[in-house]
Design goal:
- The complex is a heterodimer of chains A (1124) and B (492).
- Chain A is elongated and about 120 Å long.
- Chain A has eleven helices and 58 strands.
- Chain A has a 22-stranded antiparallel barrel. In chain A, strands 1-14-13-10-11 form a five-stranded antiparallel β-sheet.
- The longest helix of chain A has 15 residues.
- Chain B is mainly alpha-helical and 492 residues long.
- Chain B contains 19 helices and seven strands.
- In chain B, helix 3 runs parallel beside helix 7.
- Chain B is globular, with a radius of gyration of 28 Å.
- The N and C termini of chain B lie far apart (99 Å).
- Classes of the chains: A mainly beta (1124), B mainly alpha (492).
- Chains A and B meet through strand 33, strand 34, strand 35, strand 38 and strand 39 of A and helix 1, helix 2, strand 1, helix 3 and helix 6 of B.
């Protein structure tokens, strides 16, 4: 039988560029390729060369076979290619296949046809013929989920995981339509065949790439919600150890902040702004279907910086970020779900959006072994301009003179104790090192029709820019296994992700010392190599004159964390239309911390009055989840109805103990808790969170033109009081692909795709902490219990009516594609209103406590525009260039807050203003007469002592007012270059005023100042920015300084920046070379992160805006990746 | 055809079965029990804490634990810090270098210039009401409990009512009219207003009378039932209630009952007797009615009074040793008063001599626990009865009681022989007997109406300006803002 596939339209985009064909199925249109040929007894060979001439298609055939055939008689004028070929090959025992621009002629493969049996009794229908087949893609991989329908009729089958299908009751002459989310649609005329094998072309439009959604997947084309996808290959281009950092600047509506430049840094993630005033604002993280922690348990050291977690029920969140323990290399894709349509099915957990992480899975086919090695270097990119010794001494002496103060015996910097000719650049000494970056990855994957596997291994090591031997090392294993039964009905998937992290860093960030140490401070080491404490000349009491920052290196801190995320899915296809499925997931994040404070950390003179101690912390967060689901697919009319009904059972437990051990006899044994004479349990945490839900989704797709999506969820959560255990959430969304409409196809021809979509729904925020409704009694922590017995005391006021915070989201968007989707533009508007805010409502102390957690009808509105643009500018065989842009313009506003004026939050918030607001004094410079900072009070008068509760007249929003990214990808032959710029427009706290110029505390390492402070007041009449120097800051001078430095509109200034976030350059070994050395792929690459930043910010870095934490580093790596 | 339909039926059945199983699972999912969680084992819940003797007793233990740990951090605020702050407000303590104090909390108390912006941690109102909340919760929970051993239940309710009275005693003395918060219901306690002092006194007396009935006569262990008369006097007993009741009657002018209550203690010689001066502040000595066991170890193993008041050879400083005894107190000691020898000390720094309270000998450097902080002791009961007798015209009775105290201090009998002079002698005796103990001096000056006369002289010397309004501490602004029914004391 011959394949009689009909190519209805084959469109060639451009002759100059790499030839790309987009195959569209549109009934009734004429074929692009036609043949005109007439003549008698023409040998097939000649017919084929005519075809090649007229169409440009290559015709490949076996000469022997073709020569053996009879010549043909033809009379064709503008005959469509397929028809023409069918005609000429008819009865010649040959069939044809068209692949790209090649026509393959092969021997017709006769199969036993379920041919008609004419003996059958008339009146009875013939037994239905059965059709088998297998569908593959260009790479020869099976394509699952292809739906097969009779043209103009209903769906009659779907391919299984091996791409196979079986159809019954199909008419001999039926035209079958094969379509799937990510392939071009193909029509094939059956022509009585019972066996089909052909390949479907993968769709090249980005609109057809798979997007993961809650409990399923779809494509951008058919998506009704607001979902953005970042692919694993883009994550792999960035030398980051936390996958979240790879999302910076890539996703509209997603704002990410890195806390420090240390490995394992905290990362704050906000989707479409801040919804909750005082509770958690983290998105829901779901890794392969399993919910994952968004915050670390409280840590002993917060040097890694927080991840924007709220302090809830007295339990804060620790330093670092849980996603640091997921190897970015194991990730296939990250999907960011933003609107109610995409998230309402997650109910009470998804008010802040959801981030779905899908890990890599095996593909059937050859076993692939892949390995990569990457080596890199990280540096602090920006140094601050600080005073040198000469300038510093001038400032100090002037401060003394202004105070009429004498040089004290403790003024080591100016009284001759320190060598005032010394000038040390402490930033260079303490932050000037190079962080080493090593990354090694290996994976093996493969499989067959039944079983597929993927195993990945990773090793990652990062050191710091600080002096000393500090590092973070990670080892990870990722496993994915999938299996399908022979009858294709039972399916099993298992994925496991394990990482072990050993973080050996420091307890005290040296950034602060680097900025504050006086430039004439002593040398770090004595000539004999020991730590220099710069003791005062011996006498009755010889004391150390500074706190040598290197001593912090002896304050050893380590954190060992192991993380396991496993998930398995079982599914059974009960009938053609009904599938039963169940997911089982387990996660366990365990950390083990040790902080040592040996005596050698403190100066020798303080050792007699200090006791050495160590702190041990052990914590774990583990959770399990079971999610049974039923999926029903049904054709209704000309549309497809997908129904999902499911349930969730989840339990999360948190456990932690912190032990404070002291009474050690030596510094060397601090790691051994048995050597301590006294052990105090400082914190214990033990909490359980139970959650269960029923959910459902109904998706109706009418001819890929009108799509309606409805989600409902009923949630029960143990975080709420007995009177409010359950709550319902829901959403509805719709999309109209108007480019499928006739008017669009006839009048808007420049549009290759056009869709409008809108959704409305509710989601909840349950990040309010466990047991908030209980009046808990805890044991006061004391060293010698009263009467030897433990006490029990209430921890707060009871509120059994606690509820979810609820967020209502309205979302509308338009997606359009031009020039065959080479340009795709998306615009999205969102309006999210969060109410029922759980707030610590201030109550008088006569109630026993200063506040009670309660739901208040305060409403916060997040509104914004998200814009995205993807374009393929040039695409040719040797060179291609594509670009993408995303832009978000968010606004946030407190819409309503009953009795705000009388609440304790009155000084922080204003109705109609963002909740990320700061109320600041208006700074008017230095009083020329007195040399003291001046501000305007509420009446506009000048004052140096403004009233904190009435005179804060300037309002500044600290949240970004605009952010986004611009990416460009270039490929030239084997070279690939990707560049991503990130931009943020925002206001932040700067370091313009320094740290009380003229003041000095030797043993606290406080002294130096930024160079901004040099233009200062000296004499009456001076009009300058900085007030007069002082060594003691008495009275107004001190308060004026604090007001200016922390709460004035000059200290909060522009912190916008444009950053070359990522640059990735790779060179692939030419294919011929690769073939020669028999490897599949080999590439060399160079990657850089945070390469440069353009900003007016007055400080170290506009992203973390800190003078105490290391800024994000500039990292450059080189590496090689090979696949065998 | 037939084959076909049977297959379909079969499929249908599987489908139905699966659906049934699945619905069952969903029913499980939506079950309320599935969601509810047990209280974490690191904590006990309000609804079960009063169910067993041990956990119920632990609630009261936590009150003593917190009082004791606040006592150790005398300069960090809390109810026991009244020994420091009320001493500063009166004419008892001198603040070292007031202009340059590293913490600004002492200075307003010292110069009688408190404002409504006082820090909550140094504010007694803010520190005392949370204790009252615990006692209220305990009284409610204990009363409703049906599973406790009756003796334990009585003892614990008695302790809770005693502590509540103890708290209100200081509130009414420091602030005047105060809200009478007698329930744990936060809604009811949110908009409370101040009640007249008399009503507060009545509540104090009611609570104490009730706890007298409920409490055991001996001292119980932490299980609230094992009775160990006279050993560890760290939980209040029946006589502690009597002692405080005697004081409450005296303060509220019920001299008859004040004398009666004091007598029950004075006559109970099997448990209580005056000790010699050197041993009067030893833990659990025969003079102690109630003392607090320190809950710290190492440098925190002894009392906060010792740690703060006992100066080292370096003398006072602005951080750890900010106060010393005022010249008014030192000059008040009569010649030969052995209390001056036994209970005060001196340190010479250059030409300056600083006197300090030395009732507790264990300073900050002592790491072995040998002293407890004494809250109630017998000698006060003699002075209460002396005053009550004097007020009732029983001159000889009054003299006798006063002389017992004087004799112990190595002083001759009092020369006062009429009511007025006796009252004045008793006030003086209280000054030198009870100095730096729980704010006695400040409270005595106020209740005897001497405060204006004394402070108008002393305050200016301390660097402030006296106004009679300053005898009542202010309510801090945030509390006034949160409770519109709350009115400020006049002058603030």
């Amino acid at each position: 039988m011959s394949i009689t596939a009909k190519l209805l339209r084959v469109m060639k985009l451009t002759a100059l560029l790499l030839t790309v064909f987009a195959v569209h199925v549109t009934a009734g249109t004429t074929e692009a390729q036609t043949i005109s040929l007439s003549g008698k007894n023409i040998p097939l060979k000649e017919v084929f060369s005519a075809v090649k001439k007229q169409t440009g298609y290559y015709v490949v055939y076996n000469t022997k076979e073709v020569e053996a055939t009879q010549p043909v008689n033809v009379n064709a004028k503008d005959e469509p290619l397929a028809q023409f070929l069918s005609l000429v090959l008819k009865d010649r025992g040959l069939e044809y296949t068209i692949k790209k621009n090649t026509i393959l002629i092969s021997k017709e493969q006769k199969k036993i046809t379920g041919s008609l049996t004419p003996e059958l009794t008339p009146g009875l229908p013939p037994p239905p013929p059965t059709v088998h087949g297998r569908i593959t893609n260009e790479k020869g991989e099976a394509v699952a989920g292809v739906s097969i329908s009779i043209k103009g009729g209903k769906t009659i089958g779907v391919t299984n995981d091996n791409g196979e299908f079986t159809l019954t009751n199909v008419a001999d002459n039926a035209v079958l339509v094969f379509s799937a989310i990510n392939t071009e649609t193909l029509e094939i005329k059956l022509n009585g065949r019972s066996e089909l094998a052909f390949s479907l072309k993968t769709k090249t439009s980005v609109l057809d790439e798979v997007q993961m959604i809650a409990y399923g997947s779809t494509s951008k084309r058919l998506q009704t919600g607001n979902v953005s996808t970042v692919k694993g290959e883009d994550i792999a281009k960035q030398p980051v150890s936390n996958p979240l950092l790879a999302l910076e600047g890539r996703v509209p509506g997603l704002f990410i902040t890195q806390s420090t430049g240390l490995p394992g840094s905290g990362v704050t993630v906000r989707i479409q702004g801040q919804n909750s005033i005082s509770k958690g604002n983290d998105p829901l993280y779901v890794i392969d279907g399993v919910p994952y922690a968004s915050q670390m348990l409280p840590t002993i050291s917060n040097i890694l910086g927080g991840s924007g977690g709220a302090v809830i029920g007295g339990v804060g969140s620790g330093g670092g970020n849980p996603l640091s323990f997921i190897n970015p290399e194991d990730i296939e894709s990250i999907d960011v779900l933003k609107d109610a349509d995409a998230t309402a099915i997650y109910g009470s957990r998804a008010a802040n959006g959801a981030i779905l992480i899908t890990t890599k899975k095996g593909q059937s086919g050859l076993s692939l072994v892949s390995a990569s090695v990457q080596e890199g270097w990280g540096k602090v990119a920006n140094k601050m301009d600080l005073l040198n010794t000469q300038q510093y001494l001038r400032v100090r002496f002037e401060g003394k003179k202004n105070d009429n103060a004498s040089v004290l015996s403790t003024d080591y910097d100016i009284n001759g104790t320190w060598d005032s000719t010394k000038n040390t650049d402490w930033q260079k000494v303490l932050l000037g090192g190079t962080a080493k970056y090593t990354n090694m990855q290996a994976s093996v994957s493969g499989g067959n029709n039944v079983t597929k596997y993927f195993v990945g291994f990773g090793y990652h090591k990062e050191t710091t820019v600080f002096p000393g031997d500090l590092s973070d090392q990670k080892g990870s294993v990722h496993l994915n296994l999938s299996n399908i039964s022979q009858n294709q009905k039972f399916r099993f998937d298992l994925s496991a992700d394990y990482q072990s992290d050993y973080n050996q860093i420091i307890l005290t960030d040296l950034t602060q010392s680097a900025l504050l140490l006086a430039p004439d401070a002593p040398a770090l080491y004595n000539p004999d190599g020991t730590i220099n404490w710069a003791m005062t000349p011996s006498g009755t009491s010889t004391v150390s004159t500074w706190n040598n920052p290197l001593s912090y290196l002896n304050q050893k801190y380590r954190n060992k964390t192991v993380n396991l995320v496993t998930n398995s899915n079982l599914s059974y296809q009960i009938t053609k239309n009904v599938e039963f499925k169940s997911g089982f997931g387990y996660t366990n994040l365990e950390s083990n911390e040790l902080a040592q404070n040996p005596l050698i950390v403190v100066a020798p003179d303080k050792r007699t009055s200090t006791s050495r101690y160590s702190i041990f912390g052990n914590g774990s967060v583990n959770s399990w989840i079971i999610e049974p689901q039923i999926l029903i697919k049904q054709n209704i009319g000309h549309g497809k109805l997908d129904v999902l009904i499911g349930g969730t059972l989840q339990q999360t437990s948190k456990n932690q103990q912190t032990l404070y051990a002291l009474g050690y006899s030596s510094d060397g044994i601090l790691e051994d808790i048995r050597s301590a004479t006294s052990i105090i349990v400082t914190t214990t945490l033990n909490s359980t969170y139970n959650y269960s839900a029923i959910f459902g989704r109904l998706n109706y797709n009418y001819r890929d033109k009108y799509i309606l999506n409805v989600n409902v969820r009923s949630d029960g959560s143990s975080r709420f009081g007995a009177d409010n255990l359950f709550h319902r959430f829901g959403s509805f969304g719709g999309a109209w692909i108007f480019s499928k409409e006739k008017f669009s196809q006839s009048h808007l021809k420049f549009l290759s795709f056009g869709k409008v979509r809108a959704s409305y729904g509710t989601t909840g925020n349950d990040q309010i902490g466990d047991y908030q409704f209980l009046s808990l009694y805890t044991t006061p922590s004391v060293a010698a219990p009263y009467q030897g017995a433990t006490g029990l005391q209430p921890t707060g006021l009871t509120n059994p009516y606690l509820q979810w915070e609820e967020t209502r989201k309205i979302q509308a968007g338009i997606d359009v594609g031009f020039f065959s989707d080479r340009i795709i533009f998306g615009l999205n508007y969102y309006l999210n209103r969060s109410s029922n805010q759980l707030l610590a409502y201030a109550v008088p102390i006569t109630t026993g406590f200063s506040s009670i957690t309660t739901n208040l009808p305060a409403t916060i509105q997040n509104q914004g525009w998200e814009l995205s643009l993807n374009s393929i500018n040039i695409k040719s065989k040797n060179f291609s260039w594509s670009a993408n842009l995303n832009l978000t313009i968010p606004t946030n506003k407190l819409v309503d807050f009953p009795n705000l004026e009388s609440s304790a939050l009155a000084s922080s918030y204003s109705i109609g203003e963002p909740i990320t607001l700061r109320k600041l004094f208006h700074f008017v410079g230095v009083d020329p007469a007195t040399g003291v900072y001046q501000f305007t009070d509420s009446r506009g008068n000048l004052t140096s002592t403004p009233n904190s509760s009435t005179d804060r007249t300037v309002l500044i929003n600290t949240a970004p007012s605009m952010y986004g990214g611009i990416g460009n990808s270039f490929r030239y032959k084997e070279f690939q270059l990707d560049i991503l710029f990130q931009f943020v427009k925002q206001e932040g706290l700067n370091y313009f005023f320094g740290n009380k110029p003229g003041q000095f505390f030797g043993t606290s390492n406080i002294g130096n100042q930024p160079a901004y402070i040099l233009s200062h007041w000296q004499n009456p009449g001076d009009i300058v920015a900085i007030q007069r120097y002082s060594s003691t800051y008495p009275g107004n001078l001190g308060t004026a300084f604090s007001n200016a430095q922390q709460t004035s509109d000059v200290s909060w200034s522009d912190a916008s920046y444009l950053r070359l976030k990522n640059l990735s350059l790779s060179w692939q070994l030419p294919v011929e070379w690769q073939k020669k050395i028999k490897i599949q792929d080999c590439r060399f690459f160079l990657q850089a992160q945070n390469l440069f930043t353009v900003t007016n910010f007055k400080g170290l870095d506009p992203e973390n805006q800190s003078v105490n934490s290391l800024p994000p580093l500039r990292v450059v790596t080189v590496g090689i990746k090979m696949t065998l | 055809m037939k084959k076909y339909s049977s297959k379909r039926k079969c499929e249908h059945r599987t489908y139905k079965q699966a659906l049934l199983i699945w619905i069952c699972i969903l029913m499980g999912v939506s079950c309320k029990k599935q969601i509810e969680v047990q209280a974490p084992p690191t904590s006990v819940n309000a609804s079960n804490v009063y169910a067993t003797d041990a956990t119920a007793a632990a609630v009261l233990t936590s009150i003593y634990t917190n009082l004791s740990s606040k006592d150790r951090a005398l300069n960090f605020g809390g109810l026991p810090s009244i020994s420091l702050f009320a001493g500063l407000s009166a004419d008892e303590l001198t603040l070292f270098n007031p202009a340059n104090q590293s913490t600004t909390s002492y200075q307003p108390y010292y110069t009688n210039s408190l404002t409504n912006l006082n820090s909550p941690s140094f504010d007694f109102w803010y520190q005392i009401y949370p204790i009252i909340f615990v006692t209220n919760s305990a009284i409610e929970g204990l009363s409703n409990s049906t599973t406790l051993t009756p003796l334990v239940k009585n003892q614990l309710i008695g302790e809770a009512r005693f502590i509540r009275a103890f708290c209100f005693f200081y509130l009414v003395n420091l602030y005047g009219d105060v809200p009478l918060v007698l329930t744990s219901d936060w809604k009811a306690n949110t908009n409370v207003s101040r009640e007249a002092k008399a009503k507060v006194w009545q509540q104090i007396i009611d609570d104490l009378k009730s706890s007298q009935d409920l409490l055991s006569g001996g001292y119980v262990e932490s299980d609230a039932i094992t009775n160990k008369i006279g050993t560890e006097r760290v939980r209040p007993n029946k006589f502690a209630a009597s002692a405080l009741l005697a004081r409450a009657y005296l303060y509220s002018g019920d001299y008859l009952h004040a004398g009666e209550q004091a007598t029950t203690l004075i006559n109970n010689t099997s448990i209580y007797s005056l000790n010699n001066l050197a041993n009067a502040f030893k833990p659990n000595n025969s003079e102690v009615i109630w003392n607090l066991q320190p809950v710290g170890t190492g440098t925190n193993a002894n009392t906060g009074e010792g740690a703060m008041f006992v100066l080292t050879s370096a003398g006072p400083n602005t951080s750890n040793y900010p106060v010393y005894l005022s010249p008014y107190l030192m000059n008040a000691f009569e010649n030969n008063d052995q209390r001056k020898v036994n209970w005060t000390g001196n340190v010479n720094v250059g030409s300056a001599i600083y006197s300090f309270a030395n009732k507790y000998k264990m300073g900050a450097g002592n790491t072995t626990s040998t002293e407890y902080s004494i809250v109630l002791r017998l000698s006060e009961q003699y002075l209460i009865r002396a005053e009550a007798f004097a007020q009732q015209g029983n001159i000889s009775g009054s003299q006798a009681d006063l002389n017992i105290i004087r004799a112990r201090a190595g002083l001759p009998n009092t020369l006062s022989n009429d009511k007025a002079s006796l009252l004045s002698s008793i006030l003086h005796e209280r000054q030198v007997e009870l100095f730096t103990e729980w704010g006695h001096r400040w409270l005595d000056l106020k209740r005897t109406g001497q405060v204006d006369a004394v402070m108008s002289v002393v305050t200016p010397q301390k660097g402030g300006l006296w106004n009679t309004n300053w005898q009542w501490f202010p309510i801090i602004l945030t509390e006034l803002q949160k409770d519109p029914n709350l009115l400020q004391n006049s002058g603030y």
